[in-house]
Amino acid sequence: MEIEKQVQTDSDVDDKTALINEKQQPSDTDYSSDSNDLTTHIDDIVDSIDIGLFHYIITIASGLGFGGCTLFYQTISFIVVAACDLDINRSNKHWLSLAFIIGSVIGSGISGRLTDTYGRRKMFVISLFINLICMLACAFAYNYAMLVIMTGFNGCAYGGIATAAHSYVLEFFPRRSRGRAGAVLSSFLTLENLYNSAIALPLLPYPFYYAIGSIYFTSWRLYILISAIPALLSFCTLLFMPNSIRFVLAKNDKKAFRDVLNKIDQINSCFSTSRTSHDKVLYSKITTLDLQQNDIHSKIRKEERRNFADDIRELMKQPWRRRFILLSIVWIGYSIADHGFTIWLPTVMASYEGGKTCWHGYNKTENIPWNTTHLYNGVNSDCKSGDSLKAIILDILIGNLFSLPVTIFCFLLINRVGRKVLYIILASISGFCILMILLLDNRLSVMIIACIFTAITTNAWIPCKIWTTELFRTEFRSTVVGLLSIIAALFLPDTSNSDIR
Predict the structure, then answer these.
(1) Calculated CA dihedral for residues 96, 91, 339, 156, nearest 10 degrees
(2) Lowest-confidence range among 49-63, 65-79, 239-253, 346-360?
(3) Which of 209, 234, 388, 457 has its CA at a distance of 20 to 30 angstroms from the CA of residue 164?
(4) Which residues form the signal peptide (predicted)?
């Protein structure tokens, strides 16, 4: 709550935060990561840097990468009903989501600690590279087994991106702007889900086959390649971006600190011919900071000896332990609802398109044996094409369109009502939608509720991710996000093979 109060009003931050005091001698400032005033010192420096072109580029580039990798989960849900040439059926279609879940558990566990040790940007770029390679391999998968294996590796990349993205972006922004910056970053989930559905609509319902060696290049393979474009743009941009300014300050890396500031100034001044005298003086003071080495030498050596066990011991102390337990419950519950039902929706809509109703409904096939029912609908397969697949994609596209006003709503209220309150509101609506999907028993009603669910569920991650990121210290922030991702993934249900009957 204290963090929420700090970001709620710009004026409070400006009044209470001393940016760079002219009377303060730079050599008297201790920026070591063990200093009790580390957070205050870092916030003072970050608050002194005006938001400019650099911040817009870093947010857009990171958002493209974060959303681009995350939308692969929606891609899976489309593939299981569209990739008819891979012989996906009810006995094996859950392999894709299961491989992705296992990969995300492994990736989150490994990358969380590595992100805090070697830098947010480095792990972000490496994870994006792995994601792009896996997407290319998925598009040219020889058979279903290869597609499943590549999806597992893609899950590892997703774990790395999920643990690094928010920490990387938010650590460039002053306290007064972190809430909205995080909201913009998370909004790329909505935008790229919309992009994903939009490219699926003209591609997947109209299959084509072009022989390339031993495989047939089809519409779903082209769909995967096009869906990888946002991640490719992000990768190319982040190659030229610096590491997080808070990370290099926490590591007491003087050279990297000045390199980051030079890069920020270089990009921000691209469309500005001159800076005000105040900006020049401020920049001069920051870039000439002499991080005191002698007084903090022992503390730096202590920080260099920190390992994963040290972070865990620190995490088990108050108030970190209480926060971690609370957020573990939040992440487990919402991940089950979000990921479980998101990957299930195309199957649900495909079932309704096939003439079936929910488990409590009654229809003309009620007394027909289970095997006979599925024989009528395509030999134990949910594969769809043509108008039926087009209707499924259109339903999800409408839901993603409804997500846009909800995203704007989150952006406007994230600093007013607070992260926790906004998350509770959105999560409650998502839970109500899930209940209605289970209770309602006709296609139109389920379509309407599914659209509302799609609009709400993605946006609830906006306050949740920002809330999580801001509650922990820079030194083990990404480690915590990685641990939470592992815990949440361990409880993820595999709903891709669930029948609505």
Answers:
(1) -20
(2) 346-360
(3) 457
(4) none
Q: Which residues neighbour 219 within 8 Å (Cβ) at sequence distance 6 or greater?
A: 82, 203, 204, 206, 207, 208
The answer to whether the Cα torsion of 37, 38, 43, 49 is positive or negative is: positive
Q: What is the pLDDT of residues 270-302, one digit of tens each?
A: 765 445 434 543 454 454 444 444 443 444 444
3-state secondary structure of 217: strand
Helices 443-459 and 461-470: angle between axes, nearest 10 degrees: 20
CATH 1.20.1250.20 fits 28-490, yes or no: yes
Instruction: Give 262's contacts (C-beta < 8 A, 6+ positions apart).
Output: 287
pLDDT higher than 60, residue 19: no
Distances (CA, A) of 6 to 14, 48, 371: 10, 16, 60
Instruction: Break the chain into its structural domains and give their ranges.
Output: 28-490
pTM confidence score: 0.70
Q: What percent of the chain has pLDDT over 70?
A: 70
**Whole-number Cα distances in Å, 382 to 134, 220, 496:** 25, 15, 11
Residue located via tokens 């195309």: 346
Tell me the C-alpha distance between 198 and 72, whole Å.
14
Q: Can you tell me whether residue 442 is helix, strand or coil?
A: coil
